[in-house]
Amino acid sequence: MEFLKDLWSYIRGRRKWWLLPLIIILLLIGLLIVLGGTSIAPFIYTLF
Amino acid sequence: MTILGISAFYHDSAAAIIQDGEVLAAAQEERFTRIKHDASFPVNAIKFCLQYAGRSLNDLDAVVFYEKPFLKFERLLETYYAFAPKGLRSFLLSMPVWIKEKLFLKKIIRDELNTIEKTDKRKLKLLFPEHHLSHAASAFYVSPFEKAAILTIDGVGEWSTASICMGEGNKITVLKELNFPHSPGLLYSAFTYYCGFKVNSGEYKLMGLAPYGNPHDVQVKKFVELIKKHLVSLNEDGSIFLHQQYFNYATGSRMVDDAQWEKLFGIPKRKPESLPEQSYCNLALAVQQVTEEIVLNMAREAKKITGADYLCMAGGVALNSVANGKIHDAGLFKQLFIQPAAGDAGGALGAACAGYYIYFGRERKIDPAKMDALQGAYLGADYADQDVLMMSRKYNAPYKHFDDEDELLSKTARLIATGAVIGWHQGRMEFGPRALGARSILADARDGEMQKKVNEKIKFRESFRPFAPVVLMEDVSDYFEHDDVSPYMLLVKPVKKNRQIAFPDNFQSKGLLDKLYYQRSDIPAVTHVDYSARLQTVHKETNRRLWKLLQAFKRYTGYSVMINTSFNVRGEPIVNTPEDAYRCFMRTRMDYLVIGDFIFDKKDQPEWKEKEDWQKEFSLD
Question: What's the pLDDT score for residue B71?
Fold first, then answer.
């Protein structure tokens, strides 16, 4: 949560709105990689 | 108010602690872990700083990290975007590391701090000033100036590669910045790479190689022209523009495009560890000349836009003592202050200062009786007699203890005067890359053979590398064309004219080793092949014992100057503890070890045995 708050204040402070979708996608991919290594993996794969 | 500063995760991690504006302690992690340029989270350095300050993590008002990770990530993304599709491989390699770790630096820092001591997340404030602001703060706030221009130059932080700031009281105003990929530090590192040295550690070797270049050779002039025409444009306002088609660092893992450089300069990338041929010496001289021009232009711009009388400097390029000497010679400013840990390690100190003065807005007090607020950079760990005795028992190492300091120093001075090489371990360890007489190897500068002996048989390093002199502050102008302080070995100046021995007419056509072993002055071991010396003035107020040793040496020899080189072998961090010192002493051909009030004579020591080849312990730097 603290991370998201910091990220938001950085984007707002720097007015780098165009980076937001890029960072979100990268974070989602990262999340997928992390979760892919756990027991949740089979449920993720059925989504695709 | 107590603040801890940290630099980590790139190279040379370090910690520093300040309390009510006083710099209490600062140390690099490598000195504890014995891994050169250790970039890991500085757990040991932090523990040392806390212990020295008598504080726990929960007593701190803030922990300040030396740069902003989000801003760095922004630079990476925008750089990849600008160069796409070039750099895709590098992008795919670096992104997982950022997404999994580096973006979550705040959490990593908290987790690491929790391994030292359980901290209260809500209470412990974590701050992140910008990289170049940390450098600027590390130089200005500890300087003796109420008002000064600040010039920071390095490879790259977040976006900035150089900045000009104005410091006044407790405020720093950023006036100008140069942004990535246009970087004086990266330009120098590119040549470091091409001349066969390691980037981020071999830059000072390139600086040491440059004087072997022949300034009268047309090849040097041609190289300078090629650099300015194809690689870098120098602008009137001090900024530079690097032509990226010749470089590879923005999107790849190498500094330059080797094939293009070979075509441009007509020589291939030098093989590491080979004796540098004249063309590489000339190339080193050419880039040194261009770097000096860049740095001088930036200093002129700083003078122009600030009108300040004084200049503070930090950032890795501020360790280029030859360029610093040129700024000093130009007389643009009444006085220079160059922060001794000018590289990223010093960012820890700057981060702590930035937290204290900028974030908390505390008043800045300057003690006019002191040269600066750094206590001679002796900010590291100190060891008591008990530690020395424990070490001597562990190794069955016989010693002689001196109750009388004058007797100890007279004996040491006599030993140096008769050709002995001394390991010198005294008081608190230095902060920064230079040994300044607390963890040093000392020898006689008058001995022409000493440079070869210390380089090859004690330091096990390249024979071409020069040694720096330590000289009594009171006598500096007797030996060098310099009449000012240089306490941190960050100014290069010529040896006094009347001490120089003229070179024969064919000197410049001689090979590197012939030049090296030519008697250049009456203090040949600290006179480089262009008569220059990277000098350190020794002050009674900051290092009384070394000052007294030089006085004793002067009584025996008439000379108050000696060789001072770092107490380590090639690839090893400078020694920290008495045990590190004894180990290094026994592995090399040093003759005596002086730790505190103890002298260890090599002849009396038991035979040194190690299970494995210790030289494999340290990778070559």
Answer: 96
Distance from CA of B130 to the nearest CA of A (A): 13
Interchain proximity A7–B70, CB inside 8 Å: yes
Q: Which chain A positions have a beta carbon within 8 Å of B95's beta carbon?
A: 26
B568-604 core/surface letters (b: 16 or more CB in 10 A; e: else) = bbbebbbbbbbbbbbbbbbbbebbbbbbbbbbbebee
How close does chain B come to A23, measured CA to CA in Å? 9
Residue whose C-alpha is closest to residue A27's, from B512, B70, B190, B516: B70
In this prediction, residues B524-528 reach a mean pLDDT of 95
Best of A5, A7, A23 to disrupt the B interface by mutation (most B CBs within 10 Å)? A23
- Among candidates B74, B99, B107 on the partner chain, residue whose Cβ is nearest the Cβ of A27: B99
The helix/strand/coil state of B341 is coil
| Residue B320 forms part of a structural domain | no
Q: In this predicted model, what pLDDT tens digit does every residue of B116-148 receive, in sequence order?
A: 999 988 889 999 999 999 999 999 999 999 999
Residue among B453, B403, B458, B452 at smallest CA distance from B568? B458
pLDDT digits (tens, 9 = 90+) for B477-518: 999 999 999 999 999 999 999 999 999 988 888 888 888 888
Q: Write out B515-561 in H/E/C secondary structure.
A: HHCCCCECCHHHCCCCCEEEEEEECCCCCHHHHHHHHHHHHHHCCCE
Structural domains counted in chain A: 1
Q: Provide the CB-side half-sphere exposure for B261 (13 A, CA).
A: 24
Q: Is residue A43 part of a domain?
A: yes
Q: Which of B71, B100, B107 lies nearest to residue A30, judging by beta carbons?
A: B100
Rg (CA), chain B: 24
Helix (H, G, I), strand (E, B) or coil at B225: helix
Range(s) of the domain holding residue B442: 385-617
State yes or no: cis peptide before B181, omega within 30 of 0.
yes
CA gap B572, B620 in Å, rounded: 9
Q: Quick check: is A6 in a domain?
A: no
CB < 8 Å to A30, chain B:
96, 99-100
Q: Does B108 touch chain A (CB under 8 A)?
A: no
Angle, in degrees to the nearest 10, between helices A2-14 and B105-116: 140
pLDDT one-digit tens code per residue, B201-257: 899 999 999 999 999 999 999 999 999 999 999 999 999 999 999 999 999 889 999
CB contact under 8 A, A26 and B104: no
The band of A43, judged by pLDDT with boundaries at 50, 70 and 90, is low
Q: How far apart are CA B262 and CA B270, in angstroms?
A: 10
Where residue B465 sits, what CATH number does that domain have? 3.90.870.20
A26 chain-B contacts, CB cut-off 8 A: 95, 98-99
Q: Does B104 touch chain A (CB under 8 A)?
A: yes
Total domains, chain B: 1
CA distance linking residue A15 with residue A3, whole number of Å: 18
Within-domain flag for A45: yes
